Amino acid sequence: MREDLNVPQMTGGKIADYSRIDAALPTLRWLREHRAKTIVLSHLGRPDGKPNPQLSLRPVARALSDRLGIPVGFAPDCVGEVAESAVAALHDGDVLLLENVRFHPGEERNDPAFAQQLARLGDLYVNDAFATAHRAHATTEGLAHLLPNAAGLLMQAEVSALSRLTDRPARPFVCVVGGAKIRDKIGMLERLSELVGAFCIGGGMANTLLAALGVNVGTSLRDDDLQPTRRILAAIEERGVGLHLPSDAVVAPSADAQDQAHVVAIDAVGEEMILDIGPATAQAYASAIEAAKTIVFNGPMGVYEKPAYRGGTQVVGDAIARATEAGATSVVGGGDAAAAAHLLGFASKMTYVSTGGGATLEFLEGKQLPGVAALER
């Protein structure tokens, strides 16, 4: 089974965030209850096709064992005699985690010979790693062509939840988009502009859109090339989609100068940095959100990691929670959006929180994800 156990770790191998491990548990438990011998494949970090002790999955095996409440075996390689011996020793219901698949260059190259080596270890293939489904790698795409295959429970839940946003969503449909850079989300914005009734924009994305409209954003983070942004603005206008942009902002000389943070009108930024949407903007966004029946949250409104700049994201998140309680469908796109939702306490109040980052964006862009397409075939 392919899982995404690419979790952040602290010094000494202590896991900093268990979200991805916990997301894998339902499928692992199902397989264990059905007495499968489960061989778990995952990557960790970017070792560039070479063994790297700092990126070993051994600490993840210990964490997985703690979360499952059973001993989880670990093999120090994912192919070859070491892996084959570990698999041969499994009993019904056992779980074995193999070493980082990216220690071999054949993984990211989707090398057929490497995929064949992996395929020899098992009888069936389950892909439960939606967050890597946009990569055509040996363990995310190649194996599906070599063994009878299925989607895991997490993969199924991700595709189902995100499909609700693109296949006949209930209206009004509001998309709340933030994050650092607009260029990573241009495709998503273009696709969603065909579906949504309104966008509420914050973060570096709002800075870039404001700059494209001729507003001075001072020293704020924004994209330098404004041509793609102007195309997006034209498409949004042409389709009659509502576009909510900040009318005020929280600014400071730098992100570290929290003690100097203050609110200004958006046309009075001067030479400071925009680090969050202002309170008037946050309330306007909240009003639009609370009237919606479908909401996607794909990025924080400011530098939410710092207390002085998380107010906008908190107000918006609380509004999404209220709308959800009133019957709306709310989906949090992965990455920073999910991290902000967990930190600020509104993740548990959403309809669904995606584990994907790039995979979620590409799905919402309407792109075919190789890992999903391989299972559909």
What does this structure look like?
The protein is elongated, with a radius of gyration of 22 Å. It has two domains: 11-153, Rossmann fold, CATH 3.40.50; 161-365, Rossmann fold (3-Layer(aba) Sandwich). The protein is an alpha/beta fold and 377 residues long. It is 37% helix and 14% strand. The protein has a six-stranded parallel beta sheet with strand order 8-7-6-12-13-14, sandwiched between helices. The chain has a three-stranded parallel beta sheet with strand order 1-3-2, with helices on both faces.
Features:
377 residues; alpha/beta; Rossmann fold; 2 domains; six-stranded parallel beta sheet; three-stranded parallel beta sheet; 14 strands; 37% helix
List the helices and strands and how they pair.
Elements: H1 19-33, E1 38-40, H2 58-68, E2 73-75, H3 80-88, E3 95-98, H4 105-108, H5 112-119, E4 125-127, E5 149-151, H6 153-166, E6 173-177, H7 186-192, E7 198-201, H8 203-212, H9 227-238, E8 242-244, E9 248-252, E10 262-265, E11 273-277, H10 279-290, E12 294-298, H11 311-325, E13 329-332, H12 336-343, E14 352-353, H13 358-365, H14 370-376
Parallel strand pairs: 1-3, 2-3, 4-5, 6-7, 6-12, 7-8, 12-13, 13-14
Antiparallel strand pairs: 9-10, 9-11
Helix pairs in contact: 1-2, 7-13, 10-11
Share in β-strands: 5-15%
Helix content: 25-40%
So, the CATH homologous superfamily of the largest domain?
Phosphoglycerate kinase, N-terminal domain
Mean pLDDT: 94
As a whole number of angstroms, the C-alpha radius of gyration is 22 Å
